[in-house]
Design goal:
Blueprint: E1 19-23, E2 26-33, E3 38-42, H1 53-59, E4 64-68, H2 86-100, E5 105-110, H3 113-123, E6 128-134, H4 144-154, H5 156-165, H6 167-175, H7 183-192, H8 200-211, H9 213-226, E7 232-237, H10 245-254, E8 258-263, H11 269-272, H12 274-286
Parallel strand pairs: 3-4, 3-5, 5-6, 6-7, 7-8
Antiparallel strand pairs: 1-2, 2-4
Helix pairs in contact: 1-12, 2-3, 3-9, 4-8
Length: 297
């Protein structure tokens, strides 16, 4: 492997073995911990597999926990000729799912990990067991707040701030957790996006809120058509201004079998409430019928 990771995580915070997959977009980093039915954890912006450490530490005794860093995020390569659109990320994730031949799969997504994970779920329904979706969405953005955020963050001055000053990590992340992140935790988010080159993906995500409108529209239709019978757990941070409760209710309206976990948390629920999420996921998955007995859509 020629790719050199941007830094080495602290084993005390991230006690997992780094693994590498040569995707069509370049070398991507992932972790694969524990045994049992697999759970695939998908991050959003500007995070990486590190975000799920507290959940994976708790669940790996019972489940095989896999978390990937998209190209340009975490410890993965930041390729020059890569688009950084959610469609591109979903393609890379799907390659890894096929490479590992994951079956009886649960997909967890939050932030952009939601639409990326649901795209993979739609494309690989025969592998799917369940979904866990928290503080996320899968339709074209249609609220004034989300559109305003998209246009402001896509503007030239704000794009410059993201690329030059790591705005997402330095300013936005601290505002979107209920409990302040420790210095050593912030260090791991900073180091993953330590140069402007490595922040291209973080800058592109807010642009894609508008650019991926057609992609999100197709995804919305396919989710409603093909995933309505898939059991879904919805761990939701109730103090997240970006994804308030109406988003949660849209999920509940589109899925026949849903369970809600309301959290005293903001946007980054994995940082604010990892223990509660892990406990709810274990109970939810243990309570499902045996694999193969789910009704088809």
């Amino acid at each position: 492997m020629s790719h050199v990771p941007p830094f080495t995580p602290d084993r005390r915070l991230f006690p997992f073995e780094s693994r590498w997959f040569d995707s069509s977009a370049g070398t991507v980093h992932y972790i694969d911990e524990g045994v049992g039915d697999p759970i695939l954890f998908l991050h959003g912006n500007p995070t990486w597999s590190f975000l799920y450490r507290g959940i994976i530490i708790r669940l790996k005794k019972r489940f095989r926990c896999i978390a990937i860093d998209y190209p340009g995020f975490g410890l993965s390569e930041a390729p020059d000729n890569y688009g950084y659109a959610p469609a591109d990320h979903a393609g890379v994730v799907r390659e890894l799912v096929k490479h590992l031949d994951l079956q009886n799969l649960t997909i967890m997504g939050q932030d952009w990990g939601g639409p990326i994970g649901l795209r993979v779920a739609v494309d690989e329904t025969t592998r799917l067991r369940a979904l866990v979706m928290g503080n996320t969405w899968y339709w074209p953005i249609d609220t004034l707040m989300s559109k305003t955020f998209a246009y402001i963050m896509s503007s030239t001055p704000l794009q410059s701030q993201i690329l030059r000053r790591n705005l997402f990590v330095e300013k936005i992340m601290p505002m979107m957790v209920k409990y302040p992140l420790a210095d050593e935790v912030m260090h791991h988010y900073r180091e993953a996006l330590s140069t402007p080159t490595r922040r291209v993906g973080a800058a592109e995500f807010p642009r894609q809120l508008i650019e991926s409108t057609l992609w999100l529209g197709d995804l919305m239709d396919e989710v409603r058509d093909r995933l309505l019978n898939v059991p879904i757990l919805l761990p939701w941070g109730l103090h997240d201004l970006a994804f308030p409760q109406p988003y949660l209710e849209r999920f509940r309206g589109d899925f026949k079998v849903s369970q809600v976990l309301r959290l005293d948390a903001k946007h980054y629920i994995q940082e604010d409430a990892p223990g509660e999420i892990a406990e709810a996921m274990q109970g939810f998955l243990d309570g499902l019928p045996p694999t193969g007995s789910l009704p088809s859509a």
